[in-house]
Every structure is written in C-alpha cells, then in structure tokens.
Please model this.
Amino acid sequence: MDWLTLIVDGLWIASLAIMSSVSRQTFGRILPSAKVPMQFGLGGVPTWRASRLMAVTLTPIIACGVWLVLLTSGQTAPAGSSTRIIMLGTRLFIAPLLCLTHLWHMRQALKVLAAEGQLRS
Model:
C-alpha cells in the first residue's frame, strides 16, 4: 500500500501546485486596491469580498490543512485496516475537488473584476 499512498500524495502535491500557480497568476492580474469576490449568490452576484491576498491564498491554505489532517488521521489507523483504505480514498477524492473549486472561484472572480475594470491590462 506504500506505492498507492505515494501516488495519492503526489496527486495532492500536484493539486496544491496548480492552485498556487493559479493564485500567483491571478494575484498579478488584480489591481492592489480591488476587493475580490469570495462568495457568490444564486444569481451569480458577489455577496462578500476580501482583499486580493486573502482571496487568492485562502483555498490553497485550507487545502494544505485538509491534506495534513487527512494524512495524519490515516496514518494513525492500523496498517491494512478498512479505516486506512477509506482515508486513502477520501484523500484521493478531495484533492482534485478542492483544486477544481479553486479554479472555478478564480475564474468567477476574474469575470466579475473584469466587468468592474479592476484588472490590470
């Protein structure tokens, strides 16, 4: 099961790298004074905003914390137990889900900011 754990950890590292890269690019495109949409209502209208640093780093930081929690909780289970296998599957499922969520959020935020003229040209 060690090779499977390495593959899942590699997926997490790749997901975090993608989120970090997208965050870095997005941070550079947003004007320093802009407030970035953080949550969208049912109509697609932003319901609250945050500074650009918080907006682009919040999801990757949460994802890193989730990864560490899942990693440590899966390691405390006995080897070969069903709990360890379930935790491995959970880690396998959540990594791309968080990555896709971050990509969607950045895309939606850039759309709103472009319409408001808050992006660098």
Q: What stands out?
A: Helices lie at 2-29, 52-75, 82-116. Residues 26 and 107 are 9 Å apart (CA to CA). The chain has one domain: 2-116.
